[in-house]
Amino acid sequence: MAPTFTVRKSNDRGYANLGWLDTHHTFSFANYYDPKFDGFGSLRVLNEDRVEPGKGFGTHPHREYEIFSYVVSGDLEHKDSTGNHEVIHRGDVQFTTAGTGIAHSEYNGSKTKPVHFLQIWNMPYNRRLPPGYATGHFPDTTKQNRFATLIAPAEKRDHVDPGHADAEKPIAIHSDFWMSAALVDEGKTATYRTPKVVEGESETDHAAPRKLYLHVVQNNAKAKVTVKSQGAEATLTHGDGMFVTGFHDELVVANEASGVAEVVLIDLA
């Protein structure tokens, strides 16, 4: 049976421009509210943010959520109440487990150029987790015409084969949540399957249908991708997203326009 595709066009997202911050919201956030888009499975927030040089989000508290940033371009500076201080760059993922409580700030680490990143929030299965922090470095080479796994369930991430010599193990998250990214060259394809986990001589598969959210990063105005799975098909351009329900086989993403199409994919129970 074919999965169901529901496309969300870029211009249909929530939007705010605060001068220092230009942001699009896939789900209800801050002053944007749409009851049809309050979350998708455990996924609660996916904002596409651009922050002006030297500006950012001042220190503020969080609880329970796991919050992470995927840097598209520029430098993102992170500080938190547990003593972490780091500047991350293109392709890096900064990951915070808020748990019982943490305060952090996120600033543009450059005084001359903007930073563009995806800010994502997920609700873990486990409440009252201890606060935590991790960073993953995922070079573009690991994503070229393939989906690189960036985030994986904590109990499975050590058993995931990164599948590329330059790839790190994915960051651990506390739910059945996988995040991947691909850079699809003009005229090429990338195929996604929910990662299989190898433990000893046995291999775990995902028999139950899953949910996917696919996002075309808004960094190539000419981007146009065709997505196919089991007879379902849709076309997306830059900034568009797509909700997939009933996924159980593979998803093929083809770049049909000029330049590289960058896509981020979230796979949920």
TrEMBL record:
Cited Pfam families: Pirin
SUPFAM superfamilies per the UniProt record, alphabetical: RmlC-like cupins (SSF51182)
Molecular function terms, GO-annotated: metal ion binding
Cofactor mode of binding and number, as noted: Binds 1 Fe cation per subunit.
Keyword Metal-binding appears in the UniProt entry: yes
PANTHER family linked: QUERCETIN 2,3-DIOXYGENASE (PTHR43212)
Protein name: Pirin-domain-containing protein
